[in-house]
Amino acid sequence: MASTFWVELYFRSLNPNNVFNQLTNYLLQYRQVSIPSVGTIRLVRQPAQLDVAAKIITPPHYRTEITSGDAVPEHQLAYLSASLEAEKHTVLDRLSAFGQNLQQQVKGDGFNWKGIGWIGLDN
User: Fold this and answer.
1) pLDDT at residue 49 above 70?
2) Separation between Cα atoms, residue 33 and residue 119, nearest integer Å
3) What one-character DSSP code corresponds to residue 108?
4) What is the DSSP track for 59-100?
5) Among candidates 70, 84, 63, which has minimal Cα distance to 34?
6) CA dist list (Å): 39 to 12, 30, 121
7) In 3D, which of 1, 4, 23 has the Cα closest to residue 95?
8) pLDDT tens digits, one per residue of 101-123
9) What is the phi-psi region of residue 39: left when phi exceeds 0, alpha when psi lies from -120 to 50, beta otherwise?
């Protein structure tokens, strides 16, 4: 939990428009977000499951998945630069700096992304 605090604090220090909220909005809307040094975080839909023996039905849900790759799509840069009112190269620099800091948390214990769930290599 403390790691989430530091991630949010870091994003808030970058821009008063709160980059972390914009990344969260983008991830929820497009189901994936690319962060340099970390990779692409995707929300993968899991279907409902039926356990007949235990008489349990679990509802559909989303799980997070991280794939490697440092390329940030042009659409994501355009979205973030418009919502943060910043130039694309500035947004990319901020994402790169954030990604380098976040990389250690993801490879270590992971972190709880508020509104999304647990992000780590052992999802």
Assistant:
1) yes
2) 12
3) T
4) PPEEEEEEE---PPPHHHHHHHHHHHT--HHHHHHHHHHHHH
5) 70
6) 21, 16, 11
7) 23
8) 888 888 888 888 888 888 876 65
9) left
